[in-house]
Amino acid sequence: MSPSRLSLAIAAAASIAVAGLAIAAPQTATSAAKASKMKLDVNNDGTIDRAEAAKHPRLAERFDQLDANKDGRLSADERPQRDMKRGKRGHHGMGMKMQLDTDKDGRISRAEAAKQPKLNERFAQMDVNKDGFLDRADREARMATRRAEWFNATDTNRDGQISRAEYDAGHAKRMAERQQKQAARKGVAR
Q1: Could you give the CA distance from residue 85 to residue 99 in angstroms, rounded to a whole number?
Q2: What is the tens place of the pLDDT at every residue in 156-174?
Q3: Whole-model pTM?
Q4: What is the CB neighbour count within 10 angstroms for residue 112?
Q5: What is the mean pLDDT of the chain?
Q6: GO terms for molecular function, please (predicted)?
Q7: Cα Rg for the chain, rounded, in angstroms?
Q8: Could you tell me the residue ranges of all domains in the chain?
């Protein structure tokens, strides 16, 4: 192998190694970030007991409320979920409301909604397709409407596109409205 080919091969190998490190770096950082988060189930038994929950004040505060079977442990079904894998969204969304689905047909009838006064009051508004049930179709229709309303309100120059400036302004407006609603709820709750 000639010296120029040898140096070319070394340069190619070095650039491949550097590229490999660059690709691996974000994955390593992500893994390190996950590992740095405190793990709830310290003893890896698949449940969170009262002692494990005590290290997390918000969870400890709600432990008795979440422990549905009162066995002193929170199983996976009893724990609040931050992701959407199980379709739960805290006290919002269809996940929590689906507990009202007593006949397990995947939708909530007006009779089932009557068990929760706030839901019963809003039933007609939430039943977008007016079929007498709250289901995925209603939720998807409401979300499509909300997205279109947000887009139209954010696209201030009406060019059919949202610029970064328009997005930032729309996002800031939505966050301010959300904070006002939260403050109003806290004021009413007191």
Answers
A1: 16
A2: 999 999 999 999 999 999 9
A3: 0.43
A4: 22
A5: 78
A6: calcium ion binding
A7: 26
A8: 47-80, 87-189
Site of tokens 């019963």: 120
Nearest to 175 by CA among 145, 154, 160: 154
Beta pairing, strands 108-109 & 133-134:
antiparallel
pLDDT at 13 over 80: no
